[in-house]
Specification:
Mean pLDDT: 90
Low-confidence stretches: 132-138
Largest sheet: none
Strand content: under 5%
Order of helices and strands: HHHHHHH
Radius of gyration: 15 Å
Distance between the termini: 48 Å
Number of helices: 7
Shape: globular
Length: 138
């Protein structure tokens, strides 16, 4: 089901604790443009189908990435695209947008998205993944 424009931005504005709709929209457009460069095939198309049309177009016409960005580099790239942003505020922006993206996508599609991204994005989406089996305590 497609999330409506107002509902999508309302959630981002609330989670990001932004002072204006414009701040929420700027964050959404920047993060989705960067995310679109990391997703391919049906996963990107399926996610676009669940976003408001204007934001789906941003996702489908991404900024070009030469290589997959680690979560840390993704945050730095976001900071570079948002005027006046720092890595700290960009982390907030990325998490606000990606957590709403995860809501729109649902658990199954979010899982598929995370499989296409480098390790560590699960926290930015607000969906921490369980750590695999490790050594047993003695």
């Amino acid at each position: 089901m497609v999330m409506r424009w107002d509902a999508f931005l309302d959630r981002i504005e609330e989670r990001g604790e932004y002072d204006s709709r414009q701040e929420a929209e700027r964050a959404a457009r920047t993060v989705l443009a960067l995310l679109g460069a990391h997703l391919v095939g049906e996963v990107r198309a399926d996610l676009a189908a669940r976003l408001p049309e204007d934001l789906a177009l941003v996702l489908l016409n991404p900024l070009q990435a030469r290589e997959p960005l680690s979560p840390e580099r993704f945050v730095r790239a976001t900071a570079a695209w948002i005027e006046g942003a720092t890595e700290r505020t960009a982390t907030w922006d990325v998490s606000a947008v990606l957590s709403v993206v995860a809501d729109a996508a649902g658990d199954e599609l979010t899982g598929s998205i995370l499989l296409q991204l480098p390790a560590g994005y699960d926290l930015l989406f607000g969906h921490p993944q369980p750590v695999g089996p490790g050594p047993r305590p003695v």
